[in-house]
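Researcher: I'd like a candidate sequence for this fold, 244 residues long. If you have to choose between options at a position, lean toward the conservative one.
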């Protein structure tokens, strides 16, 4: 891991969503378990369910639960129907201190790019729920048909959208919590910061530029003072407003 003091200032900061900005594991894992059981498949162990959070859900059905392609497609449809019923923000919570970091970076004019393997429409809904959409220059997630779902592909699309706005992605850094964030950043020449409050393991930190335990440490690493409230959206925005 590269020493923190060697990090350069960033022209763009890319952020993962699940396990980085919001704790969405309770909702994701309960819907996955229910979907599998209702379709006649074994319920994954708690450890297996936790591994589902981060990568594309379709990959999890194949690689963690061992479903065939057709079974995985059916399970994904079932899972998404459950998400549609209750909303992707159900059983999720914003990690304390992260909204302040997003607000402070935005105030300083640093472009922010959301890059998540969650379907983009769901990501937008979650950010809107917490009043965070206005902080991001681009919001990029998986396509509904899963053609774009890997972190490397999502980051590539985010870089393309930034370029269309005349914004160079380098030097840039991706903040995430899983090994796919490290790999997705490296695929595009970006640095990576892994946050330890998410769903990754110590082994997943290998190859990351740096890792942090708290939002305060992340703020310092991004060149900010400790997170401050002035970057927070208004109460009305947090209740469901904000940019789309």
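Model: Candidate sequence:
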């Amino acid at each position: 891991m590269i020493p923190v003091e060697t990090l350069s200032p960033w022209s763009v900061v890319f952020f993962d969503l699940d396990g980085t900005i919001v704790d969405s594991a309770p909702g994701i894992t309960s819907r996955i378990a229910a979907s599998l059981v209702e379709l006649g498949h074994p319920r994954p162990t708690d450890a297996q369910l936790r591994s589902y959070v981060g990568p594309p859900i379709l990959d999890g059905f194949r690689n963690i639960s061992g479903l065939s392609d057709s079974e995985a497609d059916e399970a994904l449809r079932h899972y998404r129907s459950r998400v549609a019923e209750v909303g992707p923000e159900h059983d999720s919570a914003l990690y304390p201190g992260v909204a302040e970091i997003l607000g402070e970076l935005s105030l300083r004019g640093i472009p922010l790019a959301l890059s998540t393997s969650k379907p983009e429409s769901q990501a937008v809904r979650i950010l809107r729920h917490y009043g965070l959409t206005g902080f991001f220059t681009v919001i990029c997630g998986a396509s509904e048909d899963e053609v774009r779902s890997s972190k490397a592909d999502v980051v590539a699309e985010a870089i393309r959208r930034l370029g269309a706005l005349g914004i160079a992605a380098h030097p840039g850094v991706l903040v995430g919590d899983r090994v796919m964030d490290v790999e997705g950043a490296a695929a595009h020449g970006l640095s990576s910061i892994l946050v330890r409050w998410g769903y990754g393991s110590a082994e997943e930190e290998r190859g990351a530029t740096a890792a942090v335990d708290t939002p305060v440490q992340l703020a310092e690493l991004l060149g900010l003072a400790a997170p401050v409230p002035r970057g927070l959206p208004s109460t009305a925005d947090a209740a469901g407003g904000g940019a789309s």
